[in-house]
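lol ok so funny story. i was supposed to be doing the assay writeup but got distracted and ended up predicting the structure for this chain instead. priorities right. anyway since i did it might as well share w the group, maybe its usefull for someone
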Amino acid sequence: MGLTNQSTGTGALKEMFEVQLESPDDIIIALAGNPNTGKSTVFNSLTGLNQHTGNWPGKTVTNAQGKYTYEDKKYILVDLPGTYSLLASSVEEQVARDFILFGNPHATVVVLDATCLERNLNLALQILEITDKVVVCVNLLDEARRKKINVDLKKLSKHLGVPVIGTSARNGKGLDDLKEAVRKVAQGEINSEPVKIKYNHQLKKTIQEIELEMKRIVGNKLNYEWAALRLVDGDDMLLESMNDYLKFDLRKDELLQNKLSDAQIIFKETNIDINDLRDYIVSDIVKTAETISSQVVTYENKMYNQLDRKIDSYLTSRTFGIPIMLGLLGIIFWLTIEGSNIPSALLANGLFWIEDHLTALFIWIGAPDWVHGILVLGMYRTLAWVVSVMLPPMAIFFPLFTLLEDLGYLPRVAFNLDHFFKKACAHGKQALTMCMGFGCNAAGVVACRIIDSPRERLIATITNNFVPCNGRFPTLIALSTIFIAGAAGGFSSVIATLAVLGTIVLGIVITLFISKLLSKTLLKGLPSSFTLELPPYRKPQVGRIIIHSIFDRTLFVLGRAAAVAAPAGLVIWLMANIIIGDASILTHCALFLDPFAKLIGLDGYILMAFILGLPANEIVIPILIMGYMSKGALLELGSLNQMKQLFVNNGWTPLTAVCTMLFALNHWPCGTTLWTIRKETQSLKWTWLSFIVPTVTGIVVCFIVAQGARLIGIV
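and the output, tada:
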């Protein structure tokens, strides 16, 4: 194999891929595998808390690294993106392939799922074409035993030609054997002879000349036979990567290009369509995987997955799939809303208790009123509102959402909504990113990384703001309760729930409509196909769910929100306290915006509250109350009845409430989300478009509703 005699070159590795090395003697291990094979569990079990997470250089793909020590040697474990293939049709596949191919790790561990070995072997066989420094880890043996699936590990090792270790990573079983096998492979104590894939005879015969040219050009820097096959297949990403990492620009090699042209002519003469070439390649890989699997896997009970299929017959059916999905989503929302009330109140009381003591401290030291106003009433109070309103809902929503993810339900959501998104010329995985947006739109934007196509990833990013995040739910719930459900008597809570649910459904409809509009205008293209695996239902890991949802999602998003909210508090306080003539800057701005705001069913104070609420949607209602009461700092009324009376006294009608709810659903993303969009897209252009699209949509929708209602006499 091409990498057998090549040194790893840890200095170059660190420079190219930003691997966190502490010593040149550190041993680099790549961890590869399909999604849902327990790869992350293997990674976490081996590395514990010794982990580092970031992005791959120039890519919005998560780069997780960890370390462990074994026999006085330090091993750096690089968790590659979960992928089904290395044919580089997505950024994740390119990242995984490039690290194995050009990063030259000392060894690559390929994690396979024992319950579906045949499908997982496809990736393992592709990696074995690149490098022989491989250890195959057959994980989830405990699940396989429960389903009465037996895997002959020794026979599998013989067929693959590399070490094969069985593990149950959740229980820590087999990990010591895995470490020992990795040590032997990394230190060259095992001479592996990987299985050779028998490709189509005519295909191999045709590319022999190209193989010789590749051997001349790249030498032993990579497997020239594999590289020749990829070039014939038209893998432009490989050409770019070879130029980036090996400084070989094969597009300029005339002799090689002539050989490639000759091969295409031969393919035509032998009735092999160049567009079907990848199908030939994949077909031969699949056949090899099927052959090996049939010889090493036996089933005591061939109906082992019957229960999963029975559950899926309901969860993914055309009749029950969508209603069950909406029901589960409703339960999560109800638990989030109801469960966050008490902790949110306790957190607010605690934070404002601190504010009282800060005020006492400023009085004690004799600080000027304006200093106290800026730092305490402005920056600290705004930050306190954001934290007390955002943290409890996110701390409930994200674990519940992660629970569904861990159970294996989220792929079923994508399956149910795939048809609708395909009709909108968008990606089916956008359903998952949209669901993440219900917790926080910034988290939803980050989740768009799972979409392979750059075009469809942008569509998902731009439209993610059309589903309400937990920061907008307080506004939607309060207004639906006091204006829409106020006259319903004993059924008020039901009416309020239906109103919020209707808003959510409207947001989904608008998401689909705008996605279709973008795909036909600025982001033209056809929806791409993707492999959607419906993994087996699994018992959730509660500890992992809590850690992952709290630290990786809740605190990550809250940190960004806090960084934006504190400076915003300064601006809000200044606008409310600087008086020009007989009114504050805030009042002057509200009066200026009032004529336009009236056209879309709002008023100047409402529109100003949304503008000043850019840093965080949670502070829109407090800003609005502050404006109406002509106060110089954020405040909240004691009850919904008091809030309703204040709004009615300032000219509100049910139409005003409906338009405010619609504008809360459709307006610019919050500062945290915009910041995240800028980070993810690396483009001001797409960030601005993400601001403009929902804003224009909100203005148009509110204008139609307001003017239509006035036209037919509803005020």
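Residues 1-13 have pLDDT under 50 and may be disordered. The chain is about 65% helix and 10% strand.
back to the writeup now i swear
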